[in-house]
Amino acid sequence: MTPPAVVTDSVRAFLDNDDSPEIRNPIHSTAVAREYGFDGPLIGGVTVWSWCTPAILEALGETWLDEGWCTFRFRRPTYPGDEMAIHIGPPGDEGLRLRMVNQAGVDCVVGEVGPGRASWLGELQRPATPLAPTTVDDRPLLTIESTPVGRDWSAMVNWMFQSDADAYLEESHPHRDAAPPFAGERPRVHPGWLAGRCEAIMRHNQTVPSSMHTQSRMQILSPAYATGPIGTGARVVRVFERKGHHAVVFNALVRDASGRDVALIEHTTIFRIARPGEETA
Q1: For 29-44, how does the pLDDT look when each residue is reduced to its tens digit (9 = 90+)?
Q2: Spatial distance between the Cα atoms of 156 and 259, rounded to a whole number of angstroms
Q3: Structural domains for the chain
Q4: Contact at 8 Å (CB) between 51 and 84?
Q5: CA–CA distances in Å: residue 166 to residues 63, 193, 196
Q6: What gap in Å lies between CA 281 and CA 15, rounded to an integer?
């Protein structure tokens, strides 16, 4: 199939739990986000990127969910109420260009998406620990000094059945994707949910007061269905400081109940966000 030159879509950005007292990452709340100099609560990066899924499937077909890749980075925050224009194409360096542009014409998300195996897949590290459920009793504060670079975090397991897939769509995609292949009998696991395992496993292992996802590379290795437990393991690759922000890069491997690897993801997130005046050159 020859993909169209450009596929376009649009979505009105939203948060389903902004300002909830139970919010896990307070950067998604109004008060805390403004403390860090933002105009309002930030929508999570994985959620924003996941709204591209219908356009990606229109451009590349459903086989992208069997084996496909995507790179994306966040250039500007996305706030509730932003009118986001989605563009897949034209061709970029290796795949189709991906852009999400707000109502002011600002590129909030940029990247590329393509079928098959990515050229950079060999650069990602696979965690060596078995993907079996583990209990983490002590979650130390994530700092540059305490981050276990070169080692694996403890693995975690999430249950993903049809009801769980439906709940994810209701929370993150109430007006999109609520149809096959992500709903109905034996639904596919949404790529946004797969990408979301990264922040989840970080918090499974470490205490992180607030974090801000900055970029990812994701390779879908095989089809994922909502038919049972899905395990995630992760290896910490590096930590760094930039302009007052402290960030971690880690690789997460997602595996289904049959032991089949379904996704390998490189995830970069800021775990200590610089407040106004703390930024350094």
Answers
A1: 888 899 889 999 999 9
A2: 14
A3: 7-272 (3.10.129.10)
A4: yes
A5: 22, 12, 16
A6: 32
